[in-house]
Amino acid sequence: MTARIRFSALALATALAGSGCLPALAAPATGNAADTAAPTDLATAAEQRDQREGEAALLRLQVLLDRARFGPGEIDARAGSNQARALRGFQAAHGLTASGEADAATWEALERDTAPVLADYTLTAEDLAGPYARLPDDIMQKAKLPALGHADLAEALGERFHTSPELLRRLNPGLDGAKAGTVLKMPAVGSAVSQAPLPKPARLVVDRSESVLRLLDGEGRAIAQFPASTGSEHDPLPIGEWKITAVVQDPTFHYNPDLFWDADPAHGKAKLAPGPNNPVGTVWIDLSKPHYGIHGTPEPRSVGKQQSHGCIRLTNWDAEAVAQAVDASVPVTLQE
Predict the structure, then answer these.
(1) Are 313 and 185 in contact (CB under 8 A)?
(2) What CATH number does domain 203-335 carry, 2.40.440.10, 2.60.130.10, 3.40.50.2300, 3.40.640.10?
């Protein structure tokens, strides 16, 4: 049905049963249109129905993985590499065949979590107030700004609910013009659910080959896994054993073009204000390797898919979860 994911009839039925997923992604057929439709129209309608059902199952899968702490990255109701990695991690941690495919056994394990997939959220005046602003691309221009906040309401809500702004707009077609008091449909993750903080891990491991960060217990089992960007050919991941030296919330970013191979030669050193669109996001976990750390990002959709300048980049929400769980006593392994 979708790349990397195979849904058996049982798994798909289980995924969709009572979920109410994606109510606004496409308008259902009305009246007796199907009775008089031409064969090609019927085929198109069937394809659209299959697409809606597939997207509903993918949304359910991504929400359940996120709540299980095997993050799929930005929830978008699309199959992709981060979702497949999350599935493999969840399956391995639960003694299942780590295929990266959502088979019936995986659904059974995931759906021990019986909370709804979608939650109602009432838009507030504070949500609408922002402030919001489109940021310049040039880093020297960004350095002139007093804060690096969200571009718009959809981006702000996307961070809060771990979801792509595009999907939020599809779930809520009137989002951009909504007023305070409007009830929205949001994936039931992040601030929509009450969830205990992650336990302190025995070790933090970054795996370059899988593009993931894992938190391991004392027996080496993963208690959480998140997609990560882990360096590049120019700035490879520094393989080895390291220590956490500091955890900084809402960091200021000190830009030094001498540390970036692709820096604009016209740029000089600069200091960028905190904010979710700061180059290192909302959290910096400093490592004993100079100039290296684990941090957030202003571009959650790029995590695990685009290269970094050597550091370990997570979504802001995953970086915050990791930051709350670790301290200087947790060893860090960076491995191939």
Answers:
(1) no
(2) 2.40.440.10
